[in-house]
Amino acid sequence: MRPIRAPAADRVLDPAPAPSFAVVIAAYQAAGTIGDALSSAVQQTVPAAEIVVCDDGSTDDLAAALTPFAEDVELLRQGNRGEGAAKNAGVRAASADFAVFLDADDAFLPERLEALAELASARPDLDILTTDAFLEVDGVVSRRCYDASWEFEVDDQRRGIVERNFVFGLAAVRRARFLAAGGFDESLRFATDWDLWLRLILGGAKVGLVEEPLAVYRLRSNSLSAQRARLLRGRCAVLEKALSRDDLTERERERAREALARNHREALLAEAREALVAHESDARSRALRVAASREMPVLTRLKALTAAAAPRRASRFLVRERERSGVAGPADVRFRL
User: What is the predicted pLDDT for the residue at 161?
Assistant: First the structure.
């Protein structure tokens, strides 16, 4: 039996038959990467029941990239409506017991579906299944997904999910539960998976983890820095949505407020840095906003005040700092997760 982590079962469980899995891929301008993802999906030791690709309005030659996999893949097409909408369409088109998500620039290792099937069979009470993964930054394996800095929550998954997204995103979700919850919120462009796991877990779902790295999750350092502010604002939107619920305990609400305040601070900083680097017209006002925030540490406020007084000098410093740092480090990887 592979090592697993999951909340304790509420009752004695008998092993269940292995469920079927549909691999769902949302593809947008992914012609250059999707071949590797699809190869990994079709080479599983336990075959997927279905592989569904939803083209989210691509203008590249995605059709040519899919040609070698024509017999294995069901292709859907829609206008550009976002990743959440593409995944929703893929899950609706599938019929397997679980939908397992694969990003078009990532890959599964050969035994991933086999491991998820074993977990689902041993723990039929789980609705969300995932595994550990190798994190690859700019083509170089950086670390495993789960470690002491980013742990999988076992003891209190309700509390854990309102604080942070502890579910590695290439997860499998019970299709019936996914559809009953309404799938991904298509109004969100960022942190959509966190919003989904949060709604499912607060609705009673449990998450299990196979503690083996059975996927490759690929990151690019330039996209990490470019999207930081938008990702943080996406997190804030998810937490504000969660706080509008009436089924949180007071402790859960407190944790969600703390997480919202933390992400809001980080978003203010990221927006100011991006504005300074890009010499945007509002760079000085964004730096002053950071300097005026009583939630920020004193040293951060002083640095922001200095940047507001000399924005071009601050911009040169930030660009040099980014160049010196090179590829994304552990903190950047944790942020993206």
Answer: 96
